């Protein structure tokens, strides 16, 4: 059965194949023998085939095809003996190289499960087995760089055609020899215009940072919108880009000891690293935009609420003022009525004289005279 598997590009930054590791762990941890015949692809160009049968459960066959596609003066059609030795050293007695390999594959391994140690050591061995494609790619590029590094300037001038390396569809780079150094050139293409803007800005910053004194030991990086002169004569479709060309200067210092592994792995993962940076930058920009949008919406909502509250308060104040006016008018009218009633009561009832308070039994009450509008028959004498 063939299972095409789509895996994130960011997974390529890891050396181990996640699908191969998961399948091997499943077989190793199975309580009963299982029958597996699985064929899958990773990154569009790396093929794997895993076969395990119930009739022979002690051995698992893993086939892989991960050779670099090169075009130029240096060609590697077969895996070198040095790479075979490195693969055998992963787990002595556990891994065997099957000759000839399975049809349409460059390498077939036989993994003896009965010789596999238990516990964490088994997981380490399975993880290293799943790193075979990274090991082969790195070994091939190492051999290529070593051959070019040992060439003298006269040989480099005679073989002036650059080496075209394709380790992923639509992602390639060129390596060519120059006096006292080698150059790796990456034609950069992106589908989205936003990715082009982010990538171009990133390349310019990379060049600026690489020119500092603190980065003097790192490979010199340059960026140009046009291809270098050494790439003249290469296919037009390879040199048609929308993000320019990124170049790295590789000296003999970068090919010594442990630096060689880091240099090779960085060259193989440069495309993945750039895409990872673009993805993170887009996520960061989108988060900032969403945060800014949320703050603006919140500000607008607060302004609307404040205006609504102010309008409500104004209406309430207006109603209270009108109510107070009505209440005040009613209160004044009520007070006037009370005063008038009091005066009327005083005019009708007797008046109590305070000075006669000590005469308890002889208190006299004086009532107001009654006045009438009718003329009286009584006469009065005017006093002089």
UniProtKB/TrEMBL annotation:
InterPro entries for this protein: ARPC2 (IPR007188), ARPC2/4 (IPR034666)
Compartmental location: Cytoplasm, Cytoskeleton
Origin superkingdom: Eukaryota
Keywords: Actin-binding, Cytoplasm, Cytoskeleton
UniProt family annotation: Belongs to the ARPC2 family.
Function summary: Functions as actin-binding component of the Arp2/3 complex which is involved in regulation of actin polymerization and together with an activating nucleation-promoting factor (NPF) mediates the formation of branched actin networks.
Protein name: Arp2/3 complex 34 kDa subunit
Species this chain originates from: Noccaea caerulescens
Species classification: Eukaryota, Viridiplantae, Streptophyta, Embryophyta, Tracheophyta
